[in-house]
Structure formats: structure tokens, C-alpha cells
Amino acid sequence: MEQVSGLLSWALSRVLWLSGRSERGAARQPRIMEEKALEVYDLIRTIRDPEKPNTLEELEVVTESCVEVKEIHEEDYLVIIRFTPTVPHCSLATLIGLCLRVKLQRCLPFKHKLEIYISEGTHSTEEDINKQINDKERVAAAMENPNLREIVEQCVIEPD
Amino acid sequence: MCSQAGSASAVHRAVMERAPGSAEARLRSGCLGRALPPGPARQLSWPSDAGARTRNARTRPEPGPLPASSLRSPLPPPPRLLPVTRHDAACVLRKHPPLFSFPPPRLCWHCIPPRDNGGRPDPVPVRASLSADWVRNGSGSRGRRKVGGASETQAITTIPTRQRDSRSLRVLQFPRDSEARERKWRGPEGSRGSLPLSFCLCRDRTLTRPPGGWGPGVQWSLSAAMKDSLVLLARVSAHPDSRCWFLAWNPTGTLLASCGGDRSIRIWGKEGDGWVCKSVLAEGHQRTVRKVAWSPCGNYLASASFDATTCIWKKNQDDFECVTTLEGHENEVKSVAWAPSGSLLATCSRDKSVWVWEVDEEDEYECVSVLNSHTQDVKHVIWHPNQELLASASYDDTIKLYREEEDDWVCYATLEGHESTVWSLSFDPSGQRLASCSDDRTVRIWRQYLPGNEQGVVCNGSDPTWKCICTLSGFHSRTVYDVSWCHLTGALATACGDDAIRVFEEDPSSDPQQPSFSLTAHLPQAHSQDVNCVAWNPKEPGLLASCSDDGEMAFWKYQQPEVL
Segment Disordered: which positions (chain B) (predicted)? Predict the structure, then answer.
């Protein structure tokens, strides 16, 4: 089932890409953005949830539509991710945000600026969490904490 | 895209902030003075369009004497400014549209009016002259109608037909010589004042082209002026494979300390044209070093780290030795600052506190105060340049000011206004004003009002009040991480998360209580990642150092653009 859906999405992206090639100019832009968004999604869907043994995709914490890519400059993109935490518990939401940031920082090939938000209405203290996740000094300090780092590394590790 | 749009609207805003009257006056002198050809043509009354004069010179007979009645009841005085609106591409004479004129201008005297009035003549008396040289009727015929008698009361219209005969072209064409063109745009020395080069506001407040169109021309020269005003001198890979968090010049401006995510501090000195690493202080901290600060004497260096400690390094010729480690904070220390007296040190941390330390002659450090005023992480502390006054910026969107009162430190003012984390602070050279930058993408300027001030600002007892006198918004497209006020030139540099460095200057003619700052330099891709810090050299005017998340450090030479 997964393979079929994977094949379908691949086929769809190829069809879109092929149809995109026949168009010129501005019509290309949304295609490129979609491709980039898919690239980002491909990286984040395999991240594991800190608490449960499932990936974020399986838990529907992230979906394809939650990734938005905009172009800032040539070759510089703004990636916005809106994820839905499963548990309305403070520390886990920030941890998921941390995992997303670390994974993309390490693996995303193109130059990007990242903004991560909790999708609206899914958490009681979402503004606080959004502020924390997007504060790069806090993120850097958190990653230097050995316990947190250990957890994040476990979550972000590539599946074999 | 963002940054360019931002800078265009920033210029727009900066221009908008000018007093319209003065700018208009300058434009007026710039335009009309040049538009008129020299010689007897000047005696022609408004609109004094030399083109029309040359057009009609051979086809019209000389005007006869005016009937007496016209002198008794003269026509209303002509508007002083040429009314212009959209020019079509064929319009040869391009004039600066006036910033403000009433009644609002309707048509370009040289082009066919764009608006369709149903064929009826435009009721605005565009031209009126006692000599009535070229009063035309609405159909644009080349006939001449004498002013006088009943026709005076008719609406006089001057809808000229487009004329492109070679004579008018010759007279009106913009000078081919680029220098003369430059002079035309810039106006006589000093006339343009602080308006950015050649941008002018239309009636509908859009930025319009200057005369001559966009040639090798104006927009280029404006953005080039801004780009040329900040020139790269050197780029150094300060902390390879990690980020460079902060830079600090020593008080004599000869050494630069940088600290980074690789837990080390590097001291850089200038050798010839390049910058070399004089020493690496690697063993002091177990985690990222976030900030470094030189003591006012230049012999000590304090470093704040995420391992919750602050190290004090003593300088021995070219070597540094860690003499003390200050512990006490519960979490990462975010900032450290030396007081100008040299005997006080302040540190702040994620544990929401600000600690004030005192140092005596034997290099003994003692904590004299723990200030728990903030409700969230404290990001930055800075001392006032002249007084013993401490300012702290926090994650809780506020700035707090502290002073010593009867042996203890108290918070006497809270500056609210930012909508998100305040990242950094910088005092101006006099210490009267404070610049703060924030995650809400703005930079705010605050001013101190002492008790009994002339402006009538209410003060709480004997404590001065601080008020926000200026907000620079729309210039930055992402978080502003650092702001630095040059103590030599008064320029304000900002480091932004969109990889750009911007420099602002205060307009010399602006009111000190409501200053306006304009963007004088904008370098969109100063670094390949977020710029974390900008620092002006304290001794060499115009030398700016910046560091970034990509681990690189860059040196820039700033020159104020000529227009200011």
C-alpha cells in the first residue's frame, strides 16, 4: 500500500514536472516550490516521534500540505512548516520542533531559512512554543544539552 | 525579492519622512531653474515653456498690445509649478513632478492629457499670461485667442498638441553629457539636502523617474550609492564549521575578539592589509561562547558561555590567561559587559537574572547584586557610556534600566514597545539615546528625559523616563540580531537574519525629539547566512566588522553617500 502510494505520488510529481516543462515563465514558480516542498517533506516524514515508535508521518504530525516553500532570492528559500503535535504537552512539542530544525539544517541541500510553527488551534501555549522553536539562540543552547541532544539524535536518525 | 522591495519601500518611507515643504522647495529650484533656457526666454511668463515658444515663434505674429480691460481684471496668478502627470514615453521634457501643489496638477503641458474629459476643455487654467501668447482652445488647434473681453471669463485651456519638431527636441533634450546630466539631477551644491538622489514623489506618492528616465541613471546610482557606501575590505573564516556569535573591538581598536560555536575565542590583529589570528583561547569553556567584552583599560577580556560560566582573561603581551571563572548562573550566560569605570561587570542569563559583579585591584570578583526583574531570558546587557546605568534586553519583549541606589541595584525603568524578543541594545555617543533591535523586525530609538525636562515629559520622582522617539520598520525582512551605534560618526548599523547589513544615518535637519533616520547603506548578501553581530571600530571611523552563522567574519568600509 505504501509502495503504491509512493509510486503514485512519484508519478504525480513526474507528471506535474513534465507538464510544467511545457509552460514557460511564471508558471514554473509554483512547480519549483512544490518540488522543494516535497523535498522537505521527504526529509521530515521519517523523523521519529520522541515518545512513540512511529514516524511523524504515521502520526500525522506533519503532512505534505503543512510544508510551504517560498523563494526569497535566487537559490534562497523560506521554508515554513506547520506541524500538529499529538500530545498537547509542552516539552514534546518543542522537542519535535527541535528535531525538525536539526534534520533540515543537516540534510536539506538548498540554502534556506526555516520557520516552524504549531498549526493554529492545536495547542494551548502555541505562541510560546512558536517563539521558542524559532529562537535560534535557544535552539543552539538546547542542542548543547547532552540529554536533549541524545533524544534528538535518536529521533532524527535515518531509518535503515 | 523581499529585500529589494523592502529597500524601495524603505527609501519611500525615508523620503516621506522629510518635511514636504523644504523638499518641495528644493525640487522646485532644481527643476524650474534648469528647465528654462537662458536668455530672453526667461522673461516669458509661466508656463514659460520654451518649447512652445520655439514651436510658435515662426508661425505666430508678434502679440499686439493688450486691451486695457484685461489689465484691470487680470487673470488669476498662474500656479508656480508646472503641472505634470504621467508622461508617455514620447515626452521629451521630463520634469520633476511637484511634491505637493494645489490645485492638484492635471496635465503635462507638453503631452496630450491622459484623462478623457468628454472632449470638453479642462477647466483648470493651466496657463495664463497677460501677453496671452499661446492660449489655445480645447481642441488643441494652433490658433491663438487674445485674452480680453468676454473670453477672459471663459475657461482657458491649454491642451497643447504633442510637438516633436526638431527645434523643440533640441532645446529641451536632456544633456547628452553624463556629467551635465548628473549635475541636473543632483542640482546645485547643497540644494538637494537630504533627499535621496533623484527619487521624487509624485502627487500620488509613488516614486517616479527622474528626468532622462532610468538611464545609466538614477535608480542605479541610488542603489549603487548605497552599495558603494559599504565596501568589503576582507573576509576571514573565523570559526570554521561552526557559527561565529559575537565580535568585540578592544578600546584602542587594534584587536578584535571573536567567539563562536566551536567553544573558542580568537583574537585578530591587522597585519598589512589582512587580518591574522593572534591567539586562540580554546580551553576556557565547555560549550559555545556567546559573547566577549573588553575591559575599558584593554587588559582584560570577559567571555560569556552556554556552560553557565563567565571567564575573565588577562592579557600578557600577546598571550591571554584565564584568571577567574565566575559561576553562579543556573543556565547559559547570554551576555557580559564591563562598565566604563572598569570596576563593575554585568552578566545575564536564561535564568531571567542579571548579576552585577564588582572587581577590586587584586582581581577579586564579588557579586554585589542579583536582579530578577525580567520574566524571561535576558538576552543582552550593556552599560551606559558615561553613567553607571545598566540596560538589559530580554525575551519578554522589554528593556529594563537599572541604577545603583543606596548600595543596591534597582530597576527604575521598563521600556515596552517591542512586540517580540529584544536581541540587542546600543547607546548613542552621548548616552542620551538607546537603540534596540528585536525579533519583530524593527529597530527602536529611545530617548532619556530627565526630571524637569523642557518637553514636559512626566517623570516618576527623580528617575528619568525613557520614551520611544523613533521606530525603523519595514527595512528588515527578518529578525534583527544586532544593532551598533558608531561613537565616532553617529551611524547606526544593523545585523539582520536575512543575511544583510544595513546602515542608517540620522537626518541632520530632523527634530531631536522626533528624529528621522534614513537608510544609507544596504548590502543584501553580506554573508551567506544570518548576520549575528556588527561592531564599529572605536578609533577608525567607518570601519565595520560583522560576523555570521557561516563562521565568517567580514570587514567593511563605510562611507556616507554624497547625497546626505
Answer: 31-78
For chain B, what is the mean pLDDT? 73
A70 touches chain B (CB under 8 A): no
Q: Kindly give, in sequence order, each residue whose CB lies less than 8 Å from that of residue B449, ignoring residues fewer than 6 positions away.
A: B455, B457, B459, B464, B465, B466, B467
Identify any residues that bridge with B300 across adjacent strands, giving them in sequence order: B314
Q: Is A111 on the interface with B (CB under 8 A)?
A: yes
A71 in reach of chain B (CB within 8 A): yes
How many CB atoms are located within 10 Å of the residue B175 CB? 14
CA–CA min distance B232, chain A (Å): 21
Instruction: Say how far residue B228 (Cα) sits from the centre of its chain.
Output: 15
Q: Which element (helix H / strand E) includes A136? A: helix A136-144
The closest alpha carbon to B495, from B444, B443, B542, belongs to: B443
- The number of residues making up chain A comes to 160
**Rounded distance between C-alpha atoms, residue B398 and residue B425, angstroms:** 11
Does B93 reside within a domain? Answer: no
Kind and range of the H or E run holding B378? strand B378-383
Instruction: Say yes or no: A14 contacts chain B, CB-CB below 8 A.
Output: no
CA distance B488 to B505: 13
Give me the pLDDT at residue A26, please. Answer: 53
Q: What is the complex's ipTM, to 2 decimals?
A: 0.81
- C-alpha to C-alpha distance for B348 and B74, rounded to whole angstroms: 76
So what's the pLDDT on residue A125? Answer: 78
What digits encode the pLDDT tens for the residues B182-222? 554 444 444 433 333 333 333 333 333 444 444 344 444 44
Residues of chain B with Cβ-Cβ distance to A71 below 8 Å are: 1
Count of structural domains, chain A: 1
Tally of domains within chain B: 1
Domain range for B422 is 417-563
> CA-CA distance, A136 to A142, in Å (whole number)?
10
DSSP A24: -
User: Of the candidates B253, B105, B92, B247, which has an alpha carbon nearest to the alpha carbon of residue B175?
Assistant: B92
Bridge partners (DSSP) listed for residue B256: B249, B268
Give the mutation candidate from A130, A137, A143, A144 for the B interface (greatest B CB count, under 10 A).
Answer: A137
CB–CB contact B525 A140 (8 Å): no
Residue A74: which pLDDT band, with cuts at 50, 70 and 90? confident
- Domain for residue A130, yes or no? yes
Q: Name which of B254, B255, B253, B303 is nearest B283 in CA terms.
A: B303
Write out the residue range of the structural domain in which residue A81 sits.
29-156
Residue B45 above 60 pLDDT? no
> For an interface test with A, which of B3, B263, B289, B306 has the most A Cβ atoms less than 10 Å from its Cβ?
B306
CATH code at A71? 3.30.300.130
Q: Is residue A3 part of a domain?
A: no
The Cα of B354 is separated from the nearest Cα of chain A by a number of Å equal to 18
Q: How far apart are CA B458 and CA B121, in angstroms?
A: 59
- What pLDDT is stored for residue B74 in this prediction? 58
pLDDT of residue A157: 84
The distance of A145 to chain B (nearest Cα, Å) reads 9
CATH number where B503 lies? 2.130.10.10
Residue A1 predicted with pLDDT over 60: yes
Do the domain assignments include residue B123? Answer: no
Nearest CB to B306: which of A111, A113, A141?
Answer: A141
Rounded distance between C-alpha atoms, residue B153 and residue A117, angstroms: 69
pLDDT at B487: 93
Does the beta carbon of B242 lie under 8 angstroms from any beta carbon of chain A? no
Tell me whether residue B431 is in a domain. yes
Residues of A in contact with B287 (CB under 8 A): 144
Q: Is A125 inside any structural domain? A: yes
Q: In chain A, which residue's Cα lies nearest the Cα of B2? A: A72
Is residue B252 in a domain?
Answer: no
Q: From the centroid of its chain, how far is CA B150?
A: 56
Domain membership of residue A87 (yes or no) is yes
